[in-house]
Backbone:
């Protein structure tokens, strides 16, 4: 589990210029950041570049971190903007690259639907992030990476039954969140 | 929006489908894109050099960058503003439109220089030879014709300038509006009204102010017409030397002052003109090297 909360880490980075706190923040947030960036960019190399730039940005502007009230929201917007800028720059460099990424975006039919999708996506990312660590990892391994229960069981040295239980727990929580999203709105 | 597409409660199937869609919309980093693998790249970005800059070094670096940017911008801007266009004529008369819309008719064997864009507070053109200007009005940006010895400053007007390098004088004739003519030292200055001419004598550095001239006559050249109305041979020779880019020498004083009246409308060449003049003026001419020598018969 997390040793220190993100807010504690941010304070330490800001006040003490702590390299180690920054590394801890990086380890905690990297996967989340990557998933967000990939959602917009649909290309591993680009997502990596954007995420690293965002971390660089956070470090370089650490004195401003005190203004950040909600880091998960703040970082989402940071990554989104960086991704959009990256796409624009990339688009200027070569239109063919833009064409290839235009497809997954255009599969979403209308701009309004896309907006909903993005809001829902952010909701989903936060929900995944809020899952207990083990529960989250199992969910991602099984659902994203299509690993079998047996493979995951071996990886965590637990029984396939436990894997299933954890997975169901994650799915249930996420579905609750999805329902809550539509209830809220 | 959300109301029509997403009534609540949603069916379990719909929610499952949404979750599937969300799961497949992105993925976690794999292989060489994981947090651990990527951290090395981040560190290179964080510490590009072996040593890290101290705060004041950052400030000096920033200042240096700003200076460099500033200078390059200045350089760029100036380099742009000096991108000057030169148009010269040989045996033809050319109509030119300047970037501000000003119309210029450039006489034969003349040249004009102007920036491709009038960025400065003045519209600055340089003239050698003869040209007729119809200047587009712009009181905020005075139009200045610079010649070797005289500057003509205008706001928007029609005028003719005759400023051949080797001539002893520069002649400015105004057709419309008003212009101020001054020499380079700015110690002598004349304001012209329509149908007035300023003749600047380069040797004495003084202006002669001619009033009630027939200004239209001074620009008949722009239609390819040569008009001499009781003009001494000396001046005709000068005009012809400009129009045809040759040197003309007259070796007789009375012939130099002999006055002719003639008009050439049809793009006659130099020899056609001289042939016509020589019969009434009783002279002969011959071509020696690049010169025309005129003698009494």
Residues:
């Amino acid at each position: 589990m997390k040793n220190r909360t993100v807010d504690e880490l941010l304070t330490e980075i800001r006040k003490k210029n702590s390299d180690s706190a920054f590394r801890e923040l990086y380890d905690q947030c990297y996967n989340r950041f990557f998933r967000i960036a990939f959602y917009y960019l649909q290309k591993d190399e680009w997502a990596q570049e954007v995420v690293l730039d965002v971390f660089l940005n956070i470090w370089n502007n650490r004195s401003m971190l005190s203004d950040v009230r909600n880091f998960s929201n703040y970082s989402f917007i940071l990554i989104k903007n960086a991704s959009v800028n990256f796409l624009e720059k990339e688009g200027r460099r070569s239109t063919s690259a833009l064409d290839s990424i235009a497809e997954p975006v255009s599969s979403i039919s209308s701009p309004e639907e896309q907006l909903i999708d993005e809001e829902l996506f952010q909701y989903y990312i936060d929900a995944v992030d809020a899952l207990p660590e083990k529960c989250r990892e199992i969910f991602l391994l099984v659902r994203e990476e299509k690993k079998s229960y047996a493979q995951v069981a071996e990886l965590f040295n637990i029984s396939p039954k436990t894997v299933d239980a954890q997975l169901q727990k994650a799915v249930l929580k996420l579905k609750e969140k999805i329902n809550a999203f539509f209830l809220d709105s | 929006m959300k109301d029509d597409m997403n009534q609540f409660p949603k069916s379990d199937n719909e929610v499952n489908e949404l979750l599937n869609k969300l799961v497949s919309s992105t993925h976690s980093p794999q292989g060489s894109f994981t947090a651990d693998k990527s951290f090395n790249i981040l560190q290179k970005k964080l510490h590009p050099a072996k040593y890290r800059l101290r705060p004041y070094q950052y400030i000096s670096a920033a200042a240096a960058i700003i200076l460099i940017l500033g200078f390059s911008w200045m350089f760029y801007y100036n380099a742009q503003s000096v991108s000057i266009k030169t148009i010269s004529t040989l045996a033809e008369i050319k109509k030119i439109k300047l970037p501000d819309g000003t119309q210029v008719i450039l006489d034969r064997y003349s040249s004009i220089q102007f920036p491709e864009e009038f960025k400065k507070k003045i519209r600055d053109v340089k003239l050698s030879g003869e040209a007729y200007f119809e200047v587009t009005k712009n009181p905020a940006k005075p139009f200045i014709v610079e010649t070797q010895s005289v500057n003509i400053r205008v706001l928007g007007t029609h005028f003719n300038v005759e400023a051949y390098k080797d001539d002893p004088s520069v002649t400015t004739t105004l057709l419309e509006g008003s212009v101020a003519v001054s020499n380079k030292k700015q110690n002598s200055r004349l304001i012209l009204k329509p149908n007035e001419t300023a003749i600047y004598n380069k040797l004495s550095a003084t202006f002669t102010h001619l009033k009630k001239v027939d200004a239209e006559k001074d620009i008949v050249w722009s239609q390819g017409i040569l008009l001499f109305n009781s003009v001494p041979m000396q001046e005709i020779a000068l005009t012809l030397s400009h129009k045809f880019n040759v040197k003309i020498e007259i070796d007789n004083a009375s012939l130099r002052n002999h006055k002719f009246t003639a008009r050439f409308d049809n793009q006659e060449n130099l020899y056609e003109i001289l042939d016509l003049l020589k019969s009434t003026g009783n002279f002969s001419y011959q071509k020696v090297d690049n010169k025309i020598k005129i003698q009494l018969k």
In short: Chain A has two domains: 1-107, 109-185.
